[in-house]
What we know:
The protein is mainly α and 201 residues long. Helices cover 80% and strands 0% of the residues.
Amino acid sequence: MLEELSQQFGMMQGAEIVALILAIAYVILAARKNQWCWPAAAISTAIYTALFWHVSLVSESLLNGYYLVMAAWGWWNWRSEEDLSFVSEQRSLNWHGVAILVCTIIALAWGYTAERWLGADLAYFDSATTTFAVFATWMLTQKIRANWLYWIVINLASIALYQAKGLYITSILMMIYTVMAVVGWYSWKQDDDRHISAANA
Length: 201
């Protein structure tokens, strides 16, 4: 693994390095509720769309195409200075239970389709991380704090997926993402608590 990782670092093109840096910047900025997270996401995902397609992770490639669209929507939804000081929204456990059930059904259906008709590798695993990532990204654009908890699970699963495909650099990025998702959760919670305390003062 160390030898393959070393070879991958040696072969990394400038565009891939840019994608890696911007992908990290995206999560850092999102955790800080900074609107510039969305342009960083757009450029990074454009590069990763091509990368994942090249290694036959069809769902991951399509997911990054979706991220491009959501980056535009996120930029629009976070566009005003007032929005950037928002208190994140909460959802009930029942809401999350239904959401997880629906995402699971969609993931199974898409996994079957991707395996049978698109020749995707690890189709069900890939479709599960993709489906839940689609949902978690939507939650982020809607300022729902629980998106960070979903990302922790998605990123941990993605580490195994990318290592299985030999994408060790990207699996390292997912490790970083996992830590940053934990930071994002606590950062949003602390920011919410400050705003609520100030409103009640």
